[in-house]
Automatic annotation (TrEMBL):
GO terms for biological process: 3-keto-sphinganine metabolic process; sphingolipid biosynthetic process. Residues 38-212 form the Ketoreductase domain. PROSITE patterns: ADH_SHORT. It is found in: Endoplasmic reticulum. The keyword Nucleotide-binding applies. Keywords: Endoplasmic reticulum, Lipid metabolism, NADP, Nucleotide-binding, Oxidoreductase, Sphingolipid metabolism. Belongs to the short-chain dehydrogenases/reductases (SDR) family. Pfam families: adh_short. This is 3-dehydrosphinganine reductase. SUPFAM superfamilies: NAD(P)-binding Rossmann-fold domains. It comes from the Eukaryota. SMART domains: PKS_KR (SM00822). Its main location: endoplasmic reticulum.
Length: 327
């Protein structure tokens, strides 16, 4: 009996070794050791997660930072907060990333000139708008606006930064998706779609850019304590609130720190907490992998995770039904 168990274990180990050999990670990004003097462009860097990222890059790593956002007053306030001594390492530019590609391109060119012709090393697409609202209460133009900012804005910024990355054969591009970019949630018909769109963009783009040594990170945070979330909470349907609560609430600093870590590693995905980890494992589909542990978790657990997810989903459907009865 004992012998049979030992043999089975050895067999399983051998099989696993062969599998690991056959299924090596798709690519091996080089770890970004030195962030000092790196030029980091952060869209939506005047608030929330983007602002926290700007703070960390500036103060912890000594990087050069360019922030793009619309509201000039908020940008000015952000400049005073992050760089009270008016360092020229921080450039804040007022631009709407969703309006015209030319405008975005001019802003990026301006930023490169400002930072002593340093091309963009890291682009972080954090700018977005979001609110939770039932489908029928969302106007058609609101769907268009959200897609323009959250999706097209990220496309424009990426296109404007890419040529200089390609020329040098190095670069990192980050897209802020959300756990709501991994599953549909009550009240997020417009928002989820924009975040799902980023997944298609990121996967296709990584296939084009891996040979150029440019790596993409797709980030899936749960609710994060930011001015954007406070605004969203003012009119959030209780169904959305209850579903989101199951994944907890993080601080912008927690989210930003892990984004920097994952970007340095060049990981394709960046997720948070146990729910985030399981959700990312479950929804990996045809995403690229960069580590053996991802391959093992995904191949061993997806079936089981699907069963768990169906239970979770059932509880969400129940909760939504119940909520209709509560005035
Ligand atoms: N907070 C959360 O719970 C979660 C957030 N996320 C994602 O993380 C990212 C950051 O979120 P968060 O920090 O909460 O957001 P905030 O609402 O706090 O900040 C959004 C930033 O984007 C900028 N922005 C919005 N529209 C435009 C535009 N058209 N052009 C340029 N800049 C724009 C805003 O500045 P201005 O208005 O002045 O232009 C602001 O700086 C978003 O992509 C969001 O979807 C993901 C999961 C959870
Ligand atoms: C098998 C694994 C089980 C996993 C459980 C899944 C729980 C999902 C909760 C969904 C939370 C969505 C948060 C969106 C936050 C966001 O993007 C907004 N705050 C921005 O507006």
């Amino acid at each position: 009996m004992l012998l049979a168990i030992i043999l089975a274990c050895i067999g399983a180990l051998a099989l696993l070794t062969i599998l690991i050999y056959l299924y090596r990670p798709l690519y091996h990004p080089k770890y970004l050791e030195d962030l000092y003097d790196c030029h980091v462009v952060i869209t939506g860097g005047s608030s929330g997660i983007g602002k926290e990222l700007a703070r960390l890059f500036l103060n912890e790593y000594g990087s050069r930072v360019t922030i793009l956002a619309r509201n000039s007053e908020r940008l000015e306030e952000c400049r005073r907060d992050l760089s009270p001594n008016l360092s020229d390492r921080l450039l804040c530019l007022s631009v709407d990333i969703s309006q015209s590609y030319e405008e975005v391109e001019n802003a990026i060119q301006h930023a490169i000139r400002h930072h002593q012709d340093k091309p963009v090393d890291i682009l972080i697409n954090s700018a977005a708008i979001f609110y939770a609202r039932p489908f029928e209460q969302t106007k058609p133009e609101e769907f268009a606006e959200m897609m323009r900012i959250n999706y097209l804005g990220s496309v424009y910024c990426t296109q404007a930064c890419l040529p200089s990355m390609k020329r040098r054969g190095t670069g990192r591009i980050v897209f802020l998706s959300s756990q709501a970019g991994q599953l549909g949630v009550f009240g997020y018909t417009s928002y989820c779609s924009t975040k799902y769109a980023l997944k298609g963009l990121a996967e296709s783009l990584q296939m084009e850019l891996e040979r150029e040594n440019i790596y993409i990170t797709l980030v899936f945070p749960p609710d994060t304590d930011t001015p954007g979330l406070k605004e969203e909470n003012k009119s959030k349907p209780k169904e959305t609130q209850m579903i989101n609560e199951t994944s907890g609430l993080l601080s912008a600093e927690q989210v930003a720190k892990k984004i920097i870590q994952s970007t340095r590693k060049g990981s394709f995905t960046c997720s948070y907490g146990i729910n985030g980890f399981l959700l990312t494992c479950l929804t990996c589909g045809a995403q690229p992998v960069t580590t053996v542990s991802e391959i093992i978790c995904q191949s061993l657990f997806i079936g089981l995770l699907r069963l768990i997810m169906l239970r979770v989903l059932k509880s969400f459907y129940k909760l939504v039904k119940k909520a209709k009865q509560i005035p």
